[in-house]
Amino acid sequence: MKVLITGLNNYLARNVATCLASADHQVTCLVRSRKFFHKHVQEREGLHIIEGDLFRRELPLGIDSETQVAFYFNQSPINELDIRLEMESIALQKYIQALQATACQHLIYVTKLTDDNLEKIESYIRQSGFGYTIVRVSNIIGKGSSLVNILSTLAKQQLVILPKEFATSRCQPVHLLDVCSYFSSMMLDENTYGKTFDIGGPEVMTYREAFERYLAIIRLKKTVLALPGLGVSLSVFFSRYVYQFEQDVAAAFIAYMRHDLVATNNGLKGLYPIKLTPFGVAIRYALERVTVESGVDR
User: Fold this and answer.
1) Which SUPFAM superfamilies match (predicted)?
2) Which end of the chain has the smaller Cβ count within 10 Å, N or C?
């Protein structure tokens, strides 16, 4: 199957592209910078790269006219400024315009589980005439994912000081390969057209519980203080300057704790009998990939 993907600054998008190529689909990745993309993804058979900017007047060149399925991964941070959301809308409309010249039958729009700005986005997609599916995804467990990076960084601290939301906000982490399985299954499935689905893992927990389970897996004990009144400004300070998260990880860190990331539209479970990976197994798999690829024995 010929698949087009854009939004590849997104961790999930890059991994979905690789998974689909591994499953013998012909995947074209629309990126702004080939060089930046290959910093994260190695060249491989079945993965074709074209450069293009959806904010320019000209439509991107080189899109395969026989494209059957297209993925658009939303890259706007949660609750971002209106101007950023407007830019995302412009890029989506340009992407749809480019797809009109192809054989695309199915457009899959992927965003974060807390994205509440879907009404306007869905109106754009509905007007395109394509079969479409909107998918909202919870925290990803995988090598290099924001959640795993956050947990591993916190585990290196002698004392962990976090907002009280760390102990109260709930999440539903899902294994990267389970998400890839859902996407592979839904492509060109008319049962998913015109619908919105949520993807989460098999277990719901607070972020503190997730961290404590992570610590148990790596056999560490840490003192965790969840303090009331630790506002956004102090949370940003701790994430950037104490825990030294990278900017995108810091943004995810703050956003995660301010929202419950729990799936509510669980229709995919009825369509596809995928056995979801338990949290502990998914974490161990992610850690094994880190140690194997770095040559470190665990």
Assistant:
1) NAD(P)-binding Rossmann-fold domains
2) C
What does pTM read for this prediction? 0.89
Sequential DSSP letters for 6-23: E-TTSHHHHHHHHHHHHT
Residue 56 buriedness (CB in 10 A; 0-12 / 13-18 / 19+): exposed
The Cα–Cα gap between 94 and 239 comes to 35
Q: Is the pLDDT of residue 40 over 90?
A: no
User: What tens digit of pLDDT does each residue of 105-125 get?
Assistant: 999 999 988 776 788 888 889
Reduced to 3 states, what is the DSSP secondary structure of residue 160?
strand
pLDDT digits (tens, 9 = 90+) for 199-246: 999 999 999 999 999 999 999 988 887 777 655 555 655 665 566 666
Token pair for residue 79?
């609750």
Q: Could you give the CA distance from residue 173 to residue 161 in angstroms, rounded to a whole number?
A: 22
Residue 278's SS3 state is: coil
CATH number at residue 72: 3.40.50.720
Domain final position from 137, 156, 190 = 137
d(CA 43, CA 55): 26
| Residue 105, amino acid | Q
What SS3 class is residue 2? Answer: strand
- 113, 137, 161: which is the final residue of a domain? 137
